[in-house]
Amino acid sequence: MKQYSFIIAVFLLAACGKQEDKKTETVVLGEETVVPVKLEKVTQTVRSESIVASGLVASSGEAKLSFKIGGIIQKIYVTEGQKVHKGQVLASLNMTEIDAQVSQAKYSVEKAERDFKRVESMYKDTAATLEQMQNVTTGFDVAKQNLQIAQFNRSYAQITSPIDGAVIRKTANEGEFTGPGTSIFFLTSNRQSDWVVRVGVSDKDWARLKVGNKATVVLDAYPTETFMGTVTKSAPAADPMNKLYEIEVRINPNGKRFASGLFAKVEIKPAENRSYVMVPIEAIIEGNGQDAFVYVLDESRKKVKRLPIQIGFVDGDKVLVTNGLDGITEVVTSGNAFLTESSTVIIK
Q1: Report field, pTM of the whole predicted structure over 0.90
Q2: Can you point out the beta strands (E) in 81-194?
Q3: Are residues 57 and 204 in the same domain?
Q4: Is residue 1 part of a domain?
Q5: What CATH number is attached to the domain comprising 329?
Q6: pLDDT (tens digit per residue) in 102-143
Q7: What Cα–Cα distance (Å) separates residue 289 from each residue in 146, 158, 239, 310, 318?
C-alpha cells in the first residue's frame, strides 16, 4: 500500500473537477434548478497505518553531571569532544573550605565523646540526672552524623564519569563558583547500541503502539540510507507542554557514525490494525490538510447535506476517513462541484 499526502489528493481533485465541469450539467425543471448527481457506497476497511513523526538522535546513555555541593572549581581535566571512561575524574572543587568542614565535624565528635564519658561517669555515681545523660548521648550521636555528612560531601567534591562515552558539552571553567546540582558536563555513551530517536505522537497513535514495534528511520545526514529501529519505550503520560506522548525508538547504526542532535524522520509500523471508512477520492471537496467535506443525501433524497470529515490518508483512488461518516452509507461522487446545501438533486 502506497500512501500519499493529502496535498496530492487536492491536486487530483482539482483535475477531476475540471473534467466534471465539462460533463455535469444542471437541469431546469419548471422554476427549479436540479443538479444530477451520482452516488457511491461507503465501505469499511481495516489497515495497519504507519505512524510518521520526526525527532532528534540522542544517546540513551546520556548523563548530566554536577557537584553535590557548591564551591570554587579547582580543576577541569577534560575538554568538549573528549572521550572518557567510566570512573574517570572529570573535575574537582577547591578543598580548603570542604576539608575545614570535615575537621570541624571531627572536633565536634571528639568534644561530644568527652562530654558523654564525663556525664556517664557522673551518672553512675548518681551525680548526674537521667535527662543530662540522655542529652549528652543525643549530642554525641548528632556529632557523629554531622561528621558522616561532611565526609560524604567531601567524597562528592569531584565529578567522575558514570559511563564510557564522550563529553558533548562543558558549561563551566576553572576558577568559577558553582552551586550544588548545577550541570557542569553533558555526556553521551559511545556504544553503538545506545542510539535512539525520541518522537512525540498523539494519544490515538500512542494507543496503537507497543514496545517491540518495528520502525524505519531516515536521517538528513544520510539521506540515501534507511536504518532499522525498534520501539523500546512508551511514555506513560503526555508532555504537559505539547500534550504529545514520547516514544523512544532504538536505532541500529549499521556501521555509520552517529552524533547527538541529528534530525531523523521515523516511520513506525504498529502491530495493531485500525478500522477506516473508505470513500472514492472524487467525493472529497474543499480539502485542507486532514480536514475536508463530502456531500450526502438528506432524508428526502432530494436535497444534500455537507458533512465535515477527517482524512486518515489517501490510498490510490480511495480516501480513508477517520471521523465524520458514522452511519453514512452513500456519498456524492459526481456533480458535487455544483452543489450547495440548498441544491435540489436528481440521482443519475
Answers
A1: no
A2: 83-84, 89-93, 158-160, 165-170, 177-178, 183-189
A3: yes
A4: no
A5: 2.40.420.20
A6: 999 999 999 999 999 999 999 888 888 999 999 999 999 999
A7: 64, 54, 24, 9, 16
